[in-house]
């Protein structure tokens, strides 16, 4: 099969299009023929060695954790799926090796769900990691009807899903973002405020008694969180480990089929797409992601079959 791989840690220059053996579907696994994969910043951070102290790496590495595709075959003891099923997944494994930027990928059943019919193949590939991150931060904080939620970084990939999910859970959402993104956030049901100097006062003007829940998707905002969180409020971050010292939760999304099904059951999520690249141009997609100024998911189109 064709796959984008790297033999050593580095920048996008270590990527190359290579021929790799089709992976075997072991017990409890499914082999997926990839239609689309999606780029997340963690992909190129892992490629640079950013998780070397945390996860084992087996070279050559095929990067990528988000995927939509069709089941090619199933391993032993997989009654949930059959060849031909349309699926999507946050396909992170327990070590860094066989990812989604390839024609085929194996996925543990615990991380696989039926593709939502309401989403295109590309949109479905853009949901898993960012969508689960937003879903897990909000649900672990017991976000629900009547809560006022502050979302730091609401215009980013995770934040966009966070706004939609929090609204679907019945919460009021205050969202920090640059002014250029305010109209888009209003369309999603949020009350946007500009980040930067004075953000605490702007949030307090909308929620004088404080907010019930704060989710941080950018980092570096713990002081603001403390200043606007009401007594007894809950907060979490995906970017700042110091949040635990302040009574919050530090969350790194887990692959979770049930969570994906919950996202699918909520109806059509809005999945903005910034740009789509062919598999061979993964390096260009990574470089676009590195700019940090992308509004929407970066997709990799692998196959129409």
From TrEMBL:
CDD domains: MDR_like_2. Keywords: Oxidoreductase. Residues 10-300 form the Enoyl reductase (ER) domain. GO terms for molecular function: oxidoreductase activity. Its EC number is 1.-.-.-. This is NADP-dependent oxidoreductase. PANTHER family: ALCOHOL DEHYDROGENASE RELATED, RETICULON-4-INTERACTING PROTEIN 1, MITOCHONDRIAL.
């Amino acid at each position: 099969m064709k796959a984008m791989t790297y033999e050593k840690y580095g920048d996008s220059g270590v990527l190359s299009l290579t021929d790799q053996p089709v992976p075997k579907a072991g017990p409890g696994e499914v082999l997926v023929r990839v239609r689309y994969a999606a780029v997340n910043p963690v992909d190129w951070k892992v490629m640079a060695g950013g998780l070397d102290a945390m996860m084992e790496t087996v070279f050559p590495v095929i990067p990528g954790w988000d995927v939509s595709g069709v089941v090619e075959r199933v391993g032993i003891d997989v009654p949930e799926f059959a060849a031909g099923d349309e699926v999507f997944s946050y396909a992170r494994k327990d070590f860094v090796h066989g990812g989604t930027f390839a024609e085929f990928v194996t996925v543990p059943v615990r991380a696989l769900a039926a593709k939502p019919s309401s989403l295109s193949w590309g949109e479905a590939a853009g949901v898993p990691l960012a969508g689960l991150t937003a879903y897990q931060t909000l649900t672990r904080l017991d976000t629900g009807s009547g809560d006022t939620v502050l979302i730091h970084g609401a215009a980013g990939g995770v934040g966009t899903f966070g706004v939609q999910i929090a609204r679907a859970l019945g919460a009021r959402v205050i969202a920090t973002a640059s002014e250029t993104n305010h109209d888009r956030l209003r369309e999603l049901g949020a009350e946007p405020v500009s980040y930067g100097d004075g953000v605490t006062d702007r949030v307090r003007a909308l929620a004088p008694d404080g907010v019930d829940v704060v989710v941080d998707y950018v980092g570096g905002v713990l002081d603001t969180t403390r200043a606007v969180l009401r007594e007894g409020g809950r907060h979490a971050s995906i970017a700042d480990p110091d949040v635990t010292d302040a009574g919050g939760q530090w969350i790194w999304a887990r692959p979770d089929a049930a969570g994906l099904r919950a996202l699918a059951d909520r109806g059509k999520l809005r999945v903005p797409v910034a740009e789509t690249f062919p598999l061979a141009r993964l390096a260009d997609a990574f470089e676009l992601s590195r700019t940090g100024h992308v509004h929407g998911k970066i997709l990799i189109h692998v196959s129409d079959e």
